[in-house]
Design goal:
It is a single chain. The protein has about 700 residues and is of the alpha+beta class. Strand 2 and strand 3 form a beta hairpin. The protein has an 8-stranded mixed beta sheet with strand order 32-33-35-34-36-37-38-39, sandwiched between helices. Strands 5, 6, 7, 8 and 9 form a 5-stranded antiparallel beta sheet that branches. The chain has a 4-stranded antiparallel beta sheet with strand order 1-2-3-4.
Length: about 700
């Protein structure tokens, strides 16, 4: 086993070191030579880029005052446009878009490889007679170099269309994993790297996120801004925000003690009032109510509420110690609460019933169900755009594996919603079938998975996709890229809803963390085995794909279950689980995987740390490993070291590292199309070749 003390490849963790980058280029070249020369690769790349750049895509938007804002990339604008329009124009087939920021032009002007990371717009109170545009004038824009998580934050004036010069009091922060939140036009909360503190501690957590939050008044030095909240270095992050709901203005602060536990406080002057809910619960305060989603059994007044229950309390009474709550949702063996959100008058519950979406609307206060007509049946539906302080306006997105996305718009008070925009079909799904099946895992658990394929395909090349972590549910949805690059060409596409995700609520996740991690891999292996047993495919024609935590899943499939697969695509992966907590944001994930420095926890991590379990004697499936130099979330050293160790032990992996791209692996559509085509070409070549 390779351990930290005898790891010969630590030098590959030097992200931009000359020697490490020379190694990267030397490994990129043969992969490019082997996989990009065919007509099929060119077709895959061109088709994918056409999908990503298509003008027929739905331009999803968020309302800010009178305007709908959208960020858009296409062939002419690869880095993108931040733009806006009115609802009246948006409802037409050809909206008139008013461009606010052209990221490509900004990059050219400033000679920077800017990648858009979002804009936070302040809502101000208008005085009588004031221009309505003044209400949403101030924006804090986040720009990343090359797609990294770390961003530069700069203030932009939406009325004058200019950057606000720091010399004139404009807010600006250098590249960091900063967190900012507006309080008013002249005040923000900011968490960033403030440097070493007087007591010798860092202003960042061990995970690299802000530990200290300051209240920064415009025109004053950031160094002089008063500290309003401090977390511990062992926390994941600390944060503060201002709730500007009219009549309910409040200041809040929180500290995430680990990835799944946090403490929430209301700040009243110098007083910090703990909102005393379980630290693993999800708490949300809206108007005079406190909503709590229990993520473990919660005992109140001799009643134990099961994991996944949503309760609502009178917020002021809760702070006074009263615990008289109303149950709004109770899970069952097949149904979980995926999300909840608000309009001005209503609570919207999004539930999953055997991984199929259902919506339920409740009136705020009396919690009576109300009808919302027009929501499609048997589709995955998500709430996209609401401003509960302003109206009951709602935008929904609906899609299935075979039906492209539909954007719906309406009003929860009116009780109906209607289609506003429909994305075009990007592949021929007329004969495609979708089956939901259930595999039996090693401990007897029934694990759902979806099989998507043309009706004329009985058996053949099959791609199994999985994630299995951080309570992230994989729900049915239209994927033009996998549809055109895989299904339309005759491949079978499978989504595995393994434990570790959120498909059946918090317990589907919590039973597979730390010492229960083996259940994730047993579930995925069970699905793979059943696909072969049922004749959907053969071992030689079965490929699997996953990224990030799903990349770790692929690493475990390689080292623990190599006999089940013909090919693996391992993207931006975690691999060295002995050192993951020491690399970039890795420390924030110890609540998911465990602490490798704790001998007892290392014992259950060790069997599923791919780097420590590579063997020269094993017969591994073909593998393509990809990552990004600019990924500052999952360290690219994981992928590099996996490949180096495989080569040392006599194996021949394929490797490609994008010099840009961040954790998503690509910084623009052209790079995304290349990375996608690389994976699909590898899979087609490997799974359809004669063995």
């Amino acid at each position: 086993m390779t351990d930290t003390d005898n790891d010969p490849y630590l030098w590959l963790e030097d992200v931009t070191g000359d020697e490490a980058l020379a190694w990267v280029r030397a490994h990129n070249e043969p992969t490019v030579d082997a996989l990009t020369g065919s007509a099929r690769f060119s077709e895959l790349q061109d088709q994918t880029l056409a999908i990503l750049d298509s003008d027929d895509r739905i331009p999803y938007a968020a309302r800010r005052g009178a305007y709908l804002y959208n960020f858009w990339r296409d062939a002419e604008n690869p880095k993108g446009l931040w733009r806006r329009t009115t609802l009246e124009s948006y409802e037409t087939d050809a909206p008139h878009w008013d461009v606010i920021i052209d990221v490509d032009e900004l990059g050219r002007t400033e000679d920077e490889n800017w990648v858009w990371h979002g804009g936070t717009v302040l809502r101000s109170t208008l005085t009588p007679g004031e221009n309505p545009d003044e209400q949403y004038r101030h924006a804090l824009v986040s720009l990343s170099r090359g797609g990294a998580d770390a961003t530069v934050i700069r203030e932009f004036d939406l009325v004058t269309r200019t950057w606000v010069d720091p010399a004139d009091g404009g807010y600006a922060l250098p590249e960091n994993k900063s967190r900012v939140s507006w309080i008013d036009a002249d005040t923000i909360y900011v968490g960033t790297d403030f440097g070493e503190q007087p007591d010798g501690t860092s202003s960042l957590t061990d995970s690299g996120y802000p530990r200290i939050v300051k209240q920064w008044v415009r025109g004053t030095p950031l160094a002089d801004a008063p500290i309003v909240f401090i977390g511990e270095t062992t926390d994941v992050a600390a944060n503060a925000s201002f709730d500007d709901t009219p009549g309910y203005e409040r200041h809040f602060a929180s500290r995430a003690t680990d990835f799944y536990n946090s403490e929430l406080y209301e700040i009243r002057g110098n007083e910090k009032i703990l909102v005393d809910v379980p630290t693993d619960a999800a708490a949300s305060i809206r108007l005079n109510w406190l909503f709590v989603l229990a993520r473990s059994p919660w005992e109140l007044a001799d009643i134990t509420y099961p994991t996944g229950t949503l309760l609502v309390f009178d917020y002021a009474e809760f702070l006074d110690g009263k615990r008289d709550g109303t149950v709004l949702f109770t899970p069952d063996a097949h149904t979980s609460l995926a999300d909840f959100s608000f309009t001005r008058s209503h609570l919207i519950l999004t539930t999953l019933h055997d991984v199929r979406t259902q919506l339920e609307i409740r009136t705020l206060g009396d919690w009576r169900p109300v009808e919302l007509a027009g929501v499609p049946d048997l589709a995955t539906v998500s709430v996209l755009g609401v401003d509960p302080d302003v109206s009951d306006e709602i935008f929904l997105n609906a899609s299935t594996f075979t039906l492209p996305s539909t954007l719906l718009h309406g009003d929860t008070s009116a009780g109906s919603i209607t289609p506003l925009k429909q994305a075009p079909a990007q592949y021929d799904a007329s004969g495609v079938t979708v089956d939901q099946r259930f595999a039996t895992s090693a401990d007897g658990t029934s694990v759902p998975y979806f099989v998507v394929r043309r009706g004329d395909i009985e058996s053949g090349p099959t791609l199994l996709y999985g994630y299995g972590g951080f309570e992230n549910a994989l729900v049915p949805g239209y994927s033009a890229v996998s549809g055109r690059s895989w299904v339309q060409r005759g491949g079978t596409y499978v989504i595995a809803n393994i434990r570790g995700g959120g498909e059946y609520g918090p317990e589907w996740h919590t039973q597979a963390v730390k010492a229960g991690r083996h259940k994730v891999y047993e579930d995925f292996a069970a699905v793979a085995s059943e696909l072969v047993r049922d004749g959907v495919t053969t071992v030689e024609q079965l490929g699997a794909q996953g990224g990030s935590n799903g990349g770790l899943l692929m690493g475990v499939m390689l080292t623990r279950y190599p006999e089940l697969f013909g090919a693996l695509v391992c993207q931006v992966p975690l691999i060295d689980m002995r050192r993951y907590h020491k690399l970039l944001a890795g420390a924030s994930w110890m609540a998911e995987y465990g602490d490798p420095d704790n001998p007892e926890e290392w014992e259950f991590i060790r069997p599923f740390s791919p780097y420590q379990n590579i063997s020269a004697d094993a017969e591994y499936p073909e593998i393509l490993v990809t990552t990004s130099t600019r990924d500052d979330r999952v360290h690219p050293g994981h992928a590099r070291k996996l490949v180096a160790r495989l080569e040392e032990t006599g194996h021949r992996p394929h490797y490609y590292e994008n010099i840009e791209g961040g954790h998503g692996g690509a910084a623009d559509n052209k790079q995304s199309a290349f990375m996608s085509a690389l994976a699909y070409e590898f899979l087609w070549e490997t799974l359809t070749s004669t063995k």
